[in-house]
Amino acid sequence: RLEAGRFLSDWRVVRSREMDWTALKLLLEGIEPGRQRKRYRLGKQSSKQP
Known about the structure:
With 50 residues, this protein is an alpha+beta fold. It is built from two helices and two strands; from the N terminus they run βααβ. Helices cover 28% and strands 12% of the residues.
């Protein structure tokens, strides 16, 4: 989604950086993430029953 990032303006900067899979995917789509938001996750609950 475009709301989660911004269009890439300077391709020279991108070539000199390392990136993870998500950043590569966004780069190929023409979007550079401005900020990564983490989703809420429930903590792991043990399967022990009292």
